[in-house]
Automatic annotation (TrEMBL):
Protein name: Glycosyltransferase family 4 protein
GO terms assigned for molecular function: glycosyltransferase activity
Lineage, broadest ranks: Bacteria, Bacillati, Actinomycetota, Actinomycetes, Pseudonocardiales
Domain Glycosyltransferase subfamily 4-like N-terminal: 14-177
Domain Glycosyl transferase family stretches: 189-336
Protein backbone atom coordinates (compact mmCIF):
# COMPACT_ATOMS: atom_id res chain seq x y z
CA UNK A 1 0.00 0.00 0.00
CA UNK A 2 1.14 3.57 -0.71
CA UNK A 3 0.50 5.90 2.23
CA UNK A 4 1.02 9.66 2.32
CA UNK A 5 1.20 11.13 5.82
CA UNK A 6 0.43 14.84 6.16
CA UNK A 7 1.81 15.61 9.61
CA UNK A 8 1.19 18.82 11.54
CA UNK A 9 4.44 18.07 13.40
CA UNK A 10 7.40 15.75 12.76
CA UNK A 11 11.02 15.24 13.76
CA UNK A 12 13.12 16.96 14.98
CA UNK A 13 10.17 18.18 17.07
CA UNK A 14 9.57 16.09 20.18
CA UNK A 15 5.87 15.80 20.98
CA UNK A 16 3.07 13.27 20.80
CA UNK A 17 2.21 13.91 17.15
CA UNK A 18 5.81 13.76 15.93
CA UNK A 19 6.56 10.61 17.93
CA UNK A 20 3.43 8.83 16.70
CA UNK A 21 4.28 9.65 13.08
CA UNK A 22 7.83 8.44 13.64
CA UNK A 23 6.63 5.06 14.87
CA UNK A 24 4.04 4.91 12.11
CA UNK A 25 6.68 5.40 9.41
CA UNK A 26 8.97 2.81 10.98
CA UNK A 27 6.29 0.13 11.22
CA UNK A 28 4.70 0.81 7.83
CA UNK A 29 8.10 0.66 6.13
CA UNK A 30 9.03 -2.52 7.98
CA UNK A 31 5.77 -4.10 6.80
CA UNK A 32 6.61 -3.33 3.17
CA UNK A 33 4.37 -0.30 2.62
CA UNK A 34 5.65 2.72 0.68
CA UNK A 35 5.40 5.85 2.79
CA UNK A 36 5.76 9.57 2.14
CA UNK A 37 5.65 12.32 4.79
CA UNK A 38 4.68 15.97 4.24
CA UNK A 39 5.61 18.06 7.28
CA UNK A 40 6.73 21.51 8.48
CA UNK A 41 10.39 22.36 8.09
CA UNK A 42 13.18 22.52 8.87
CA UNK A 43 14.40 18.95 9.25
CA UNK A 44 15.72 15.88 7.49
CA UNK A 45 14.27 15.06 4.07
CA UNK A 46 14.14 11.33 4.67
CA UNK A 47 13.38 9.07 7.59
CA UNK A 48 13.60 5.28 7.83
CA UNK A 49 13.38 4.86 4.07
CA UNK A 50 10.52 7.34 3.63
CA UNK A 51 10.88 10.62 1.77
CA UNK A 52 10.00 13.69 3.85
CA UNK A 53 8.75 16.77 2.01
CA UNK A 54 9.49 19.87 4.11
CA UNK A 55 7.26 22.91 3.74
CA UNK A 56 8.10 26.45 4.80
CA UNK A 57 6.85 27.20 8.29
CA UNK A 58 6.46 30.02 10.80
CA UNK A 59 6.75 29.89 14.61
CA UNK A 60 3.53 29.35 16.54
CA UNK A 61 2.60 32.57 18.39
CA UNK A 62 3.42 32.27 22.11
CA UNK A 63 5.26 29.01 21.37
CA UNK A 64 8.16 29.96 19.14
CA UNK A 65 9.82 26.52 19.25
CA UNK A 66 6.84 24.93 17.48
CA UNK A 67 6.81 25.42 13.68
CA UNK A 68 3.50 25.70 11.82
CA UNK A 69 3.62 24.86 8.11
CA UNK A 70 2.28 27.36 5.61
CA UNK A 71 -0.44 25.61 3.55
CA UNK A 72 1.29 25.34 0.15
CA UNK A 73 -1.58 23.72 -1.75
CA UNK A 74 0.22 23.73 -5.10
CA UNK A 75 3.20 21.94 -3.61
CA UNK A 76 0.97 19.45 -1.78
CA UNK A 77 -1.05 18.82 -4.95
CA UNK A 78 2.09 18.18 -7.00
CA UNK A 79 3.61 15.89 -4.37
CA UNK A 80 0.46 13.81 -3.86
CA UNK A 81 -0.29 13.58 -7.58
CA UNK A 82 3.22 12.27 -8.26
CA UNK A 83 3.19 9.84 -5.32
CA UNK A 84 -0.33 8.56 -6.11
CA UNK A 85 -1.14 7.28 -2.60
CA UNK A 86 -3.83 4.74 -1.79
CA UNK A 87 -4.59 6.60 1.46
CA UNK A 88 -3.76 10.04 2.86
CA UNK A 89 -3.18 9.89 6.62
CA UNK A 90 -3.70 13.28 8.31
CA UNK A 91 -1.81 13.43 11.59
CA UNK A 92 -3.51 15.88 13.98
CA UNK A 93 -4.84 18.06 11.12
CA UNK A 94 -5.12 21.79 11.76
CA UNK A 95 -3.42 24.17 9.32
CA UNK A 96 -1.37 21.87 7.08
CA UNK A 97 -3.94 19.11 7.52
CA UNK A 98 -6.75 21.35 6.28
CA UNK A 99 -4.85 21.92 3.06
CA UNK A 100 -3.94 18.24 2.84
CA UNK A 101 -7.53 17.04 3.09
CA UNK A 102 -8.70 19.53 0.45
CA UNK A 103 -6.06 18.33 -1.98
CA UNK A 104 -6.76 14.66 -1.25
CA UNK A 105 -10.49 15.16 -1.90
CA UNK A 106 -9.78 16.90 -5.21
CA UNK A 107 -7.54 14.01 -6.22
CA UNK A 108 -10.12 11.45 -5.11
CA UNK A 109 -7.83 9.82 -2.52
CA UNK A 110 -9.40 8.34 0.67
CA UNK A 111 -8.46 10.07 3.92
CA UNK A 112 -7.94 9.08 7.53
CA UNK A 113 -7.80 11.98 10.01
CA UNK A 114 -6.21 11.25 13.38
CA UNK A 115 -7.36 13.58 16.14
CA UNK A 116 -4.48 13.92 18.55
CA UNK A 117 -4.26 17.48 19.90
CA UNK A 118 -6.90 19.11 22.09
CA UNK A 119 -6.68 22.49 20.39
CA UNK A 120 -9.57 23.91 22.40
CA UNK A 121 -7.92 22.93 25.68
CA UNK A 122 -4.62 24.32 24.43
CA UNK A 123 -6.28 27.67 23.69
CA UNK A 124 -7.92 27.80 27.13
CA UNK A 125 -4.61 27.23 28.89
CA UNK A 126 -3.19 30.24 27.06
CA UNK A 127 -6.32 32.28 27.87
CA UNK A 128 -7.40 32.51 24.25
CA UNK A 129 -11.18 32.76 24.07
CA UNK A 130 -11.80 30.72 20.95
CA UNK A 131 -13.50 27.52 22.11
CA UNK A 132 -16.47 27.78 19.74
CA UNK A 133 -14.33 28.79 16.77
CA UNK A 134 -11.78 26.02 17.42
CA UNK A 135 -14.43 23.31 17.61
CA UNK A 136 -16.07 24.66 14.45
CA UNK A 137 -12.71 24.38 12.68
CA UNK A 138 -12.13 20.85 14.00
CA UNK A 139 -15.62 19.80 12.91
CA UNK A 140 -15.09 21.29 9.44
CA UNK A 141 -11.82 19.45 8.88
CA UNK A 142 -12.82 16.09 10.30
CA UNK A 143 -16.25 16.07 8.66
CA UNK A 144 -14.46 16.00 5.31
CA UNK A 145 -12.38 12.93 6.20
CA UNK A 146 -13.57 9.44 5.32
CA UNK A 147 -12.82 8.36 8.89
CA UNK A 148 -11.64 10.14 12.05
CA UNK A 149 -9.61 8.18 14.56
CA UNK A 150 -9.75 9.15 18.23
CA UNK A 151 -7.02 7.94 20.62
CA UNK A 152 -9.31 7.40 23.63
CA UNK A 153 -12.96 6.78 24.43
CA UNK A 154 -13.22 10.20 26.15
CA UNK A 155 -11.95 11.97 23.04
CA UNK A 156 -14.21 9.91 20.77
CA UNK A 157 -17.21 11.02 22.82
CA UNK A 158 -16.06 14.66 22.61
CA UNK A 159 -15.78 14.47 18.84
CA UNK A 160 -19.18 12.86 18.40
CA UNK A 161 -20.77 15.42 20.72
CA UNK A 162 -19.20 18.18 18.59
CA UNK A 163 -20.86 16.76 15.47
CA UNK A 164 -17.88 14.98 13.92
CA UNK A 165 -19.11 11.96 11.91
CA UNK A 166 -17.50 8.56 11.28
CA UNK A 167 -15.42 8.44 14.46
CA UNK A 168 -13.56 5.25 15.39
CA UNK A 169 -11.09 4.38 18.14
CA UNK A 170 -7.37 3.87 17.52
CA UNK A 171 -4.96 3.89 20.45
CA UNK A 172 -1.18 4.07 20.58
CA UNK A 173 1.58 1.53 20.95
CA UNK A 174 4.55 1.55 23.29
CA UNK A 175 8.13 0.47 22.64
CA UNK A 176 8.34 -2.54 24.94
CA UNK A 177 11.93 -3.25 23.88
CA UNK A 178 13.00 0.18 25.11
CA UNK A 179 10.75 0.81 28.11
CA UNK A 180 11.24 -2.06 30.58
CA UNK A 181 11.55 -2.45 34.36
CA UNK A 182 15.08 -3.82 34.00
CA UNK A 183 16.27 -0.44 32.72
CA UNK A 184 16.32 0.72 36.35
CA UNK A 185 19.75 2.20 37.05
CA UNK A 186 21.35 1.95 40.48
CA UNK A 187 23.99 4.48 39.44
CA UNK A 188 21.35 7.02 38.39
CA UNK A 189 19.41 6.47 41.60
CA UNK A 190 22.54 7.04 43.70
CA UNK A 191 23.05 10.32 41.89
CA UNK A 192 19.45 11.50 42.14
CA UNK A 193 18.66 10.08 45.58
CA UNK A 194 21.94 10.11 47.58
CA UNK A 195 20.03 9.77 50.85
CA UNK A 196 17.71 7.04 49.64
CA UNK A 197 14.85 9.37 48.72
CA UNK A 198 11.85 8.09 46.77
CA UNK A 199 11.94 9.59 43.29
CA UNK A 200 8.72 11.23 42.10
CA UNK A 201 9.03 12.01 38.40
CA UNK A 202 7.39 13.83 35.52
CA UNK A 203 8.33 13.26 31.87
CA UNK A 204 7.09 15.52 29.11
CA UNK A 205 6.94 18.98 27.64
CA UNK A 206 7.30 21.75 30.21
CA UNK A 207 4.50 23.95 28.95
CA UNK A 208 1.45 25.65 30.37
CA UNK A 209 -1.02 23.33 28.64
CA UNK A 210 0.53 20.40 30.53
CA UNK A 211 -0.32 22.10 33.84
CA UNK A 212 3.27 21.45 34.96
CA UNK A 213 3.08 24.10 37.67
CA UNK A 214 1.09 21.56 39.67
CA UNK A 215 4.40 19.78 40.23
CA UNK A 216 5.14 22.44 42.84
CA UNK A 217 2.40 20.85 44.97
CA UNK A 218 4.75 17.90 45.49
CA UNK A 219 7.52 19.91 47.14
CA UNK A 220 8.43 18.96 50.68
CA UNK A 221 6.87 15.48 50.88
CA UNK A 222 9.14 13.80 53.46
CA UNK A 223 11.65 11.33 52.07
CA UNK A 224 11.02 12.20 48.41
CA UNK A 225 12.66 14.14 45.60
CA UNK A 226 10.98 15.47 42.48
CA UNK A 227 12.62 14.60 39.13
CA UNK A 228 11.67 16.49 35.97
CA UNK A 229 12.54 15.16 32.50
CA UNK A 230 11.85 17.40 29.51
CA UNK A 231 12.14 20.97 28.35
CA UNK A 232 9.90 23.85 27.36
CA UNK A 233 8.87 27.42 28.16
CA UNK A 234 7.95 26.63 31.78
CA UNK A 235 11.36 25.19 32.68
CA UNK A 236 12.81 28.24 34.43
CA UNK A 237 9.59 28.95 36.32
CA UNK A 238 9.63 25.40 37.65
CA UNK A 239 13.32 25.52 38.55
CA UNK A 240 12.70 28.63 40.63
CA UNK A 241 9.69 27.06 42.36
CA UNK A 242 11.35 23.65 42.91
CA UNK A 243 14.97 24.38 43.88
CA UNK A 244 15.46 20.91 45.39
CA UNK A 245 14.19 19.07 42.31
CA UNK A 246 16.42 17.38 39.72
CA UNK A 247 15.99 18.73 36.19
CA UNK A 248 17.43 16.28 33.67
CA UNK A 249 16.47 18.11 30.48
CA UNK A 250 15.39 16.38 27.29
CA UNK A 251 16.33 12.70 27.21
CA UNK A 252 15.94 10.14 24.46
CA UNK A 253 16.47 6.44 23.88
CA UNK A 254 18.11 4.40 26.61
CA UNK A 255 18.77 7.47 28.78
CA UNK A 256 15.05 8.20 28.82
CA UNK A 257 14.21 4.55 29.49
CA UNK A 258 16.62 4.48 32.44
CA UNK A 259 15.13 7.68 33.85
CA UNK A 260 11.61 6.24 33.71
CA UNK A 261 12.54 2.90 35.26
CA UNK A 262 14.57 4.53 38.02
CA UNK A 263 11.56 6.42 39.36
CA UNK A 264 9.42 5.17 42.22
CA UNK A 265 6.32 7.11 41.21
CA UNK A 266 5.43 8.73 37.89
CA UNK A 267 3.02 11.67 37.85
CA UNK A 268 1.23 13.40 35.01
CA UNK A 269 -0.44 16.77 35.46
CA UNK A 270 -2.05 17.57 32.09
CA UNK A 271 -5.85 17.74 31.96
CA UNK A 272 -6.24 17.93 28.18
CA UNK A 273 -4.47 14.77 27.06
CA UNK A 274 -6.19 13.01 24.19
CA UNK A 275 -4.11 9.91 24.97
CA UNK A 276 -1.08 10.47 27.28
CA UNK A 277 1.73 8.35 25.92
CA UNK A 278 4.02 9.00 28.88
CA UNK A 279 1.62 7.10 31.14
CA UNK A 280 2.06 4.02 28.94
CA UNK A 281 5.83 4.41 28.93
CA UNK A 282 5.91 4.67 32.73
CA UNK A 283 3.68 1.61 33.06
CA UNK A 284 5.91 -0.38 30.70
CA UNK A 285 8.87 0.72 32.83
CA UNK A 286 7.33 -0.81 35.95
CA UNK A 287 6.58 2.44 37.76
CA UNK A 288 3.47 3.22 39.83
CA UNK A 289 1.56 5.93 37.97
CA UNK A 290 -0.59 8.88 39.07
CA UNK A 291 -2.66 10.77 36.49
CA UNK A 292 -5.70 13.07 36.30
CA UNK A 293 -9.10 11.43 35.91
CA UNK A 294 -9.74 13.16 32.60
CA UNK A 295 -9.13 12.50 28.93
CA UNK A 296 -6.77 9.78 27.76
CA UNK A 297 -5.65 8.55 31.20
CA UNK A 298 -9.19 7.28 31.86
CA UNK A 299 -8.52 4.51 29.31
CA UNK A 300 -4.96 3.85 30.49
CA UNK A 301 -5.28 3.76 34.28
CA UNK A 302 -7.62 1.44 36.14
CA UNK A 303 -7.75 3.29 39.45
CA UNK A 304 -6.21 1.18 42.20
CA UNK A 305 -5.10 -1.53 39.77
CA UNK A 306 -2.72 -0.08 37.17
CA UNK A 307 -2.26 3.35 38.77
CA UNK A 308 -4.08 6.04 40.71
CA UNK A 309 -6.39 8.73 39.32
CA UNK A 310 -7.06 12.08 40.98
CA UNK A 311 -9.79 14.60 40.25
CA UNK A 312 -8.23 17.60 38.46
CA UNK A 313 -10.55 19.94 40.35
CA UNK A 314 -9.29 18.66 43.71
CA UNK A 315 -6.47 21.02 44.69
CA UNK A 316 -4.99 18.44 47.06
CA UNK A 317 -5.73 15.32 45.01
CA UNK A 318 -2.35 15.00 43.30
CA UNK A 319 -0.36 15.45 46.51
CA UNK A 320 -2.59 13.04 48.47
CA UNK A 321 -2.10 10.33 45.85
CA UNK A 322 1.67 10.76 45.87
CA UNK A 323 1.83 10.84 49.67
CA UNK A 324 -0.15 7.59 49.79
CA UNK A 325 2.27 5.89 47.41
CA UNK A 326 5.29 7.34 49.21
CA UNK A 327 4.35 5.57 52.44
CA UNK A 328 2.89 2.35 50.98
CA UNK A 329 5.54 0.21 49.30
CA UNK A 330 3.14 -2.68 48.75
CA UNK A 331 0.68 -0.46 46.90
CA UNK A 332 3.45 0.95 44.71
CA UNK A 333 4.56 -2.55 43.84
CA UNK A 334 1.02 -3.72 43.09
CA UNK A 335 0.27 -0.74 40.83
CA UNK A 336 3.61 -1.15 39.04
CA UNK A 337 2.83 -4.79 38.31
CA UNK A 338 -0.65 -3.86 37.14
CA UNK A 339 0.76 -1.23 34.78
CA UNK A 340 3.18 -3.69 33.18
CA UNK A 341 0.33 -6.14 32.66
CA UNK A 342 -1.86 -3.46 31.08
CA UNK A 343 0.61 -2.60 28.32
CA UNK A 344 1.68 -6.18 27.58
CA UNK A 345 1.31 -6.75 23.85
CA UNK A 346 0.66 -3.06 23.08
CA UNK A 347 3.57 -2.86 20.64
CA UNK A 348 3.68 -0.31 17.84
CA UNK A 349 3.81 -3.14 15.33
CA UNK A 350 0.51 -4.54 16.62
CA UNK A 351 -1.15 -1.10 16.73
CA UNK A 352 -0.05 -0.14 13.20
CA UNK A 353 -1.14 -3.51 11.81
CA UNK A 354 -4.55 -2.76 13.31
CA UNK A 355 -4.53 0.69 11.69
CA UNK A 356 -3.90 -0.78 8.24
CA UNK A 357 -6.20 -3.80 8.45
CA UNK A 358 -9.13 -2.14 10.20
CA UNK A 359 -9.05 1.55 9.25
CA UNK A 360 -7.07 2.05 6.03
CA UNK A 361 -8.79 -0.89 4.34
CA UNK A 362 -12.20 0.39 5.45
CA UNK A 363 -11.86 3.63 3.44
CA UNK A 364 -10.41 2.12 0.26
CA UNK A 365 -12.73 1.94 -2.77
CA UNK A 366 -14.39 -1.44 -3.05
CA UNK A 367 -13.58 -3.50 -6.16
CA UNK A 368 -16.31 -3.44 -8.78
CA UNK A 369 -17.27 -5.80 -11.56
CA UNK A 370 -16.56 -8.98 -9.62
CA UNK A 371 -18.70 -12.00 -10.39
CA UNK A 372 -21.35 -12.72 -7.80
Amino acid sequence: MRIAIVAESFLPQVNGVANTVRHLVEELTAAGHETLVIAPGPGDTSYHGARVIRLRSVPLPRYASFPVALPHRRVITDVLARFAPDVVHLASPAVLGAAGISVARRLGVPTIAVFQTDLAGFARQYRIRANTAVWAWIRRIHSRADRTLAPSSHTAAQLRAAGVPRVALWGRGVDLDLFRPDRRSDELRRRLAPNGELLIGYVGRLAMEKRVRRLTELAGIPGTRVVVVGDGPERETLRDALPAAAFLGMLRGEELAAAYASLDVFVHTGEHETFCQTVQEAQASGVATVAPAMGGPLDLVADGKSGLLYAPSDRDGLRRAVELLARDHALRSRLATGGVARVAGRTWGHVVDDLVAKHYVAVLPRPTGLAA
